[in-house]
Specification:
Layout (H helix, E strand, L loop, with lengths): L2 H19 L3 E3 L3 E3 L3 E2 L3 E9 L3 E7 L1 H11 L10 H24 L4 E3 L3 E4 L4 E2 L5 E9 L3 E9 L3
Antiparallel strand pairs: 1-9, 2-9, 3-8, 4-5, 4-6, 4-7, 5-10, 9-10
């Protein structure tokens, strides 16, 4: 996978997390994931079309999802992932990918994104057949990790 594809996802994620949730995200060690791979409890899937074809999957624990949703809603206490909090974290991923698309477009790489789909559950397994998956871990605080799994088709 071309490194010029990865950096815009990192840049956009760090910017949007800081702007929308006042969360400073540090980049962890990027690595290649095997398929199928286990997911954290929440997975938000967004499709990519255009110059880059594939999908992006944001995964996080439920406590991290609650914290992000709370911060996005001005610090309001959130104790369960209801429709409003799920919508908030889905919209966060939408904003991240919208910013990523803009960065890529400005570099001559046009992409379109699909609306996000949020799934939750214990022991989720995600298979990205025929695509390599690069995991971009973002470290949020001392122990929280938001993983961005970028799976693209070889073109």
């Amino acid at each position: 996978m071309n490194i010029e594809y990865i950096n815009p996802f990192i840049e956009a994620s760090q910017t949007v997390l800081l702007q929308m949730a006042s969360i400073q995200a540090k980049l962890g060690k990027v690595y290649l994931k095997d398929s199928p791979h286990k997911s954290n409890t929440i997975a938000i899937i967004v499709g990519l079309t255009g110059k880059i074809r594939g999908q992006v999957i944001f995964t996080m624990s439920i406590p991290l999802g609650l914290e992000i949703a709370s911060k996005m809603m001005g610090g309001m206490t959130i104790s369960e992932l209801d429709e409003i909090s799920k919508s908030a974290i889905s919209e966060l991923t939408n904003m991240i990918l919208g910013n990523t698309a803009t960065i890529l477009y400005n570099r001559g790489i046009g992409i379109d994104i699909t609306p996000p789909s949020l799934i939750m559950g214990e022991n989720l397994q995600i298979s990205t057949d025929k695509m390599k998956t690069i995991c971009i871990p973002l470290l949020l605080g001392e122990s929280d990790v938001l993983e961005i799994d970028l799976s693209v088709m070889d073109t």
